[in-house]
Specification:
It contains ten helices and nine strands. Helix 2 packs parallel to helix 4 and helix 7 crosses helix 8. The radius of gyration is 19 Å and the shape is globular. The two termini are about 15 Å apart. Keywords: Kinase, Magnesium, Metal-binding, Plasmid, Transferase.
Length: about 300
């Protein structure tokens, strides 16, 4: 198949040798969607909810969160929408809530489980939103399988509460970011997660002992790429062993230069910044699924 002649639609793209690849988008804010035609994406691979929920008041406001999630699901129609639960703490403090800032290691799902009153509000908003589309919930900074289990239990408790109040809801699939190195090394033990998504921004900082929010750490990113790829290759093998859907949403996936390596280790679902959709699409159709170039050279 010549490059650019892909027969797939709905954001599905084929490599030059006709292997299907999904291309989704990462968003921070629902308003970003106004500029994106839903037909150009397979769905939303990562919505960073900490941008919609940016204050203590938002974190406590179930109705406001529901309205934002509903808007995003409506945009996507029946395409999958992956909303990540609040990844606060670390490089993403929530003023007021995370004040004084939590220890750098108390972030993501760890902070949510330590402050379940925040997680419960978000869980209820997500459970209610799930009836409006194809929602998937993603947990940030998961380190151990027990964290997935605890959060799933919390969702079921809140679902029971909604049932007793007669409020319609659905329990969505619950998956996880793979962005803490030991979680990636033990990925085959995460049997209770419904799906995986590689977060190479955090993986890279933890693998290189650098800090992603420090300007100087940029100098580690480029030389680290081959090591990160090797690391992902091992994690991919474990993910395949347990048969879970896998995607990648770290910014490495938005870099056309990195695409051959990511295809070669078997990744078939990329979630990228909306402004990179076009570049990544054209890079995919010019490559074979093993990452080799189909035309030119
Ligand atoms: C990542 O860590 O790669 C990621 C996608 O999440 P964030 O950049 O929001 O930490
Ligand atoms: Mg991250």
């Amino acid at each position: 198949t010549p490059a650019g002649q892909c027969p797939c639609d709905n954001g599905e793209i084929c490599t030059a040798d006709d292997i299907r690849v999904l291309l989704s988008i990462n968003i921070n804010d629902a308003a970003e969607l106004d500029a994106v035609d839903p037909a150009t994406a397979a769905g939303i691979g990562l919505m960073r909810s900490e941008f919609a929920v940016s204050s203590v008041a938002d974190a406590a406001n179930e109705e406001k969160q529901l309205a934002v999630y509903h808007r995003v699901l409506k945009w996507a129609a029946d395409r999958p929408v992956t909303i990540r639960m609040l990844d606060i703490g670390g490089d993403k403090p929530l003023t007021g809530l995370d004040d004084p800032p939590a220890a750098a290691d108390l972030r993501g799902v760890r902070l949510l489980l330590a402050r379940p009153e925040i997680a419960r509000v978000q869980a209820r908003a997500l459970l209610r939103a799930a009836v409006y589309g194809n929602l998937r919930v993603m947990l940030p900074m998961v380190t151990f399988p027990s964290e997935v289990d605890e959060m799933r239990r919390l969702f079921h408790e809140e679902a029971a509460r909604l049932t007793s109040r007669g409020i319609s809801h659905l329990v969505p699939p619950i998956g996880m970011m793979v962005e803490v190195p030991i979680a990636a090394l033990m990925l085959d033990t995460f049997e209770t997660a419904d799906f995986f998504s590689f977060g190479t921004n955090d993986l890279t900082q933890y693998l290189t002992a650098s800090a992603r929010d420090r300007a100087g750490s940029q100098m580690y990113l480029h030389p680290a790429a081959p090591a990160v790829l090797r690391f992902l290759k091992g994690a991919m093998r474990l993910a395949t062993q347990v048969g879970k859907p896998v995607s990648i949403c770290g910014s490495i996936a938005s870099d056309p230069q990195r695409l051959p390596g990511l295809l070669a280790i078997g990744l078939r679902h990329f979630s990228v910044a909306p402004e990179q959709l076009r570049a990544i699409r054209s890079a995919i159709v010019g490559l074979r699924a093993d990452g080799t170039k189909a035309v030119g050279d």
